[in-house]
Design goal:
This protein is α+β, with helices and mostly antiparallel strands and 330 residues long. The protein has a domain of 227 residues: Nucleotidyltransferase, domain 5, CATH 3.30.420. The protein has twelve helices and 16 strands. The strands form five sheets. The protein has an eight-stranded mixed beta sheet, sandwiched between helices. Strands 5-6 form a two-stranded antiparallel sheet. It is globular, with a radius of gyration of 19 Å.
């Protein structure tokens, strides 16, 4: 009997799959499977050098998530990755680590057709690859060369499309820790916890200016939004509202492109019952900002402080306990 893979827990980490699965029986999943297959786009998002050849469903798993506001746009300024995360699921599948890669991290980007390669910010790899599938491939190759990590799958997410998903869930509860004014809408977010609709939540987690820790705070807020979506999905009964469920499936599908590494989507959906929302751990890459040639970058601290070796192997939970400085509260 084929073991069910745990690839799809990456989607759970995003709050996507639980939106589809919360409260549903297996029979309901099978009824909805064909519809889900039709709306979710599958592409080869991983570079061959960044792909793990064989996935051991019982071992630790690593997935690449790339989020952008307008990944289908043709303009170059809209083709830099806004969010880059490695989702690490240790063996046993009882927790998942969301490792946010600083988008200004200075890295060597390998050459591709039309691009000669060179040192640049890691989110520029997405642009140099042309955005979309090509951009994600180059980004995966860049990240794999930097960290030594090979991936079991990938997902490309249009976060602007999440606005409708969040609204269909009835909003999410977010806690603002520091007052900040949006550079995009001029909206002021005051400290305190409250329910936010999709527009508010996405606006808030995009902010990085005027925050005590700049982009590091933005990374934490994005991780907190994923946790909030997961919590909200778990509170919402979709079995009694098939119209809303259908709307959610379509909204998710319109926002998502996946590389399942050859695993059928049905198996991925059926493998999602074990990981609770409180098992998500936010991780900050050991690094610090540095200005080089009048350009602001982020550089690794001590090569990442052993984080990437922990992700490649089996010691991520131990690394997290030994390095509380780099663990975000979600």
């Amino acid at each position: 009997m084929r073991a069910r893979p745990r690839w799809s827990r990456v989607l759970l980490g995003l709050g996507l799959t639980l939106v589809l699965l919360a409260g549903l029986a297996v029979v309901g999943l099978r009824v909805l499977q064909d519809r889900y297959d039709r709306v979710v786009v599958e592409e080869q998002l991983l570079d061959p050098d960044a792909r793990r050849d064989r996935t051991d469903p019982d071992g630790p798993l690593n997935y690449l998530l790339v989020g952008t506001d307008r990944w289908q746009s043709g303009s170059a300024e809209d083709r830099r990755a806004d969010s880059i995360l490695i989702v690490h699921v240790p063996a046993g599948g009882r927790e998942a680590f969301l490792v946010s890669i600083p988008r200004d991290l200075l890295v060597p980007i390998p050459a591709r057709t039309g691009y000669g390669g060179g040192q640049d910010k890691i989110n520029a790899a997405y642009e140099h690859g042309g955005g979309g599938m090509g951009g994600t491939r180059l980004l995966s190759a860049t990240l794999s060369r930097l960290t030594g990590i090979r991936f079991d799958g990938a997902a490309l997410v249009d976060f602007s499309g999440f606005r409708k998903v969040i609204d269909l869930l009835g909003g999410v509860r977010m806690c603002v820790d520091t007052e900040v004014r949006s550079v995009h809408t001029d909206r002021v977010f005051s400290p305190g916890c409250r329910q936010m609709d999709g527009g508010e939540a996405l606006d808030y987690v995009r902010q990085r200016y005027d925050l005590p820790n700049g982009d590091y705070d933005r990374q934490t807020h994005q991780q907190q939004l994923l946790r909030a979506m997961l919590d909200r999905a778990g509170q919402t009964s979709l079995t009694t509202n098939p119209v809303k469920l259908d709307q959610l499936i379509r909204a998710v599908g319109n926002s998502l492109t996946v590389d399942t590494n050859g695993v059928p989507l049905e198996d991925l959906l059926l493998a999602l019952r074990d990981l609770p929302s409180d098992a998500l751990r936010g991780v900050r890459v050991p690094s610090y900002p540095q200005t080089i040639g009048q350009v602001s970058y982020v550089v690794l601290e001590n090569g990442g402080g052993g984080l990437f070796a922990a992700v490649r192997g089996t010691r991520m939970p131990e690394w997290a306990r030994a390095n509380p400085r780099w663990i975000n509260q979600l």
